[in-house]
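Fold in tokens:
===
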Amino acid sequence: MPISDAFHIYDTTLRDGAQQEGLNLSVHDKLTIARHLDDLGVGFIEGGWPGANPKDTEFFARAKKELVLKNATFVAFGATRRPNVKPEDDALLVALRDSGAPAVTLVAKAYDRHVDLALRTTLDENLAMIVDSINHLRENGQRVFLDAEHFFDGYRSNRAYALEVVRVAAEAGADVIALCDTNGGMLPDELSQIVHDVLQASSARLGIHCHNDTG
């Protein structure tokens, strides 16, 4: 179902927050923190990346049985399918589909340089990866959000392509496209100008994902 109200907090404590130096959360810790976050009334709790590491895989398996949320929606995090691989043949995408989470956040490349250097594929194939992955998860009844990784760097490099990532994700049915300042290097005035431009160029529902630590 579509999001009906205007604003939500999407909490990433159990993934981004768990990456800080010296912190090592157990599965029990993650279940306990998720319950506290739910009590606080946050809209979405991102649990981690099922299939990417044993701890997150165990956490999602236990959450299916043990985690009952009153307020929040439980979210799995992962990536779009790999280049030139069908969605149903991509093990990590299948793990997201089978995670038991009613919503999934997919991270996708929005910076043309990273499509070339990191994914080693074409700009068109990257767009197809986004569309195919969203369709695959939505066919399973899951809501999908898209993290447009390095969006602001991508916008500076190739505005048309960064906007195309937003467009195809929205048309494929992503509920929200989060514009990510992955490097944490944007200043507020420029970030605001770019967000306003995206709002004018697209009817997509947007989220924002910023860092204050240069990434």
User: Anything to note?
Assistant: The mean pLDDT is 94. DSSP finds eight helices and seven strands in the chain.
